[in-house]
Amino acid sequence: xxxxxxxxxxADTASARESVFDLELAQLRPGDPLRWLARGWADFRxxxxxxxxxxxxxxxxxxxxWQAFLHAPAYVLALxxxxxxxxxxxxxxxxxxxxxxxxxxxPSLRASLLAWRPTLPTMAIFGGVLxxxxxxxxxxxxxxxxxxxxxxxxSSNMLAALLSLDNLEFIVxxxxxxxxxxxxxxxxxxxxxxxxLDRQTDAVSAALTSLRACLQNPxxxxxxxxxxxxLCVLAMLPAFLGLxxxxxxxxxxxxxxxxxxxxxxxxxxx
Length: 270
Description:
Layout: H1 6-17, H2 32-46, H3 48-71, H4 76-102, H5 109-113, H6 120-148, H7 158-162, H8 168-189, H9 192-199, H10 203-216, H11 218-236, H12 243-261, H13 266-269
Helix pairs in contact: 2-3, 2-12, 3-4, 3-12, 4-6, 4-9, 4-12, 6-8, 9-10, 10-11, 11-12
């Protein structure tokens, strides 16, 4: 009558009932982030067309933000919010490709583009939380600007004026506030999205697991966040063209960071 074997049903039930606080997360070593990057690079080489597609999207997004900053600064916030919502959906495609490679399957661009379908409600919630944090970050940045800057620099030399040593108070305050919000976003999303894809878990459970992973391995996760920041900054220098490769490699590497930290569901390990 029931075609599903009892052992598989029991495994699925155990996995479903397993609390995120019961997950035994891995203890990391300082060299692990470099191993994740190496595996991300290997995945990129195994499916370069998929990686270059997403890398081109990342590069175009960066160019759009830069052009908005140069010619229409008022639209930067709106574009940033939209890209912040697009980012998780784009990253899902890269995680999907890495998972397919892990399973011995051939990754497909079409399948990666549709990876968001089973997780749409959860990803919508998660993206909404990221959007709220981004709006709070923007509001805090405006307060810092209003308190530490006397006049609004002209759009023709805005970047140079903002980074001038005459505005050292603004630079320090902006970096500190930005670091706080960036840290909050990182600890809540370091492995959340691949976990949502892999386990079909809810947004709160995924964020709590990401937070646990960061608190359990603060030094290594801080190093991982610093590597991500450094690589993204370097990738932006040549007209954002570096994101063609760095973006997808980091996406694949994030999947391997998740897979290292979080054990496979019990139903899959039987």
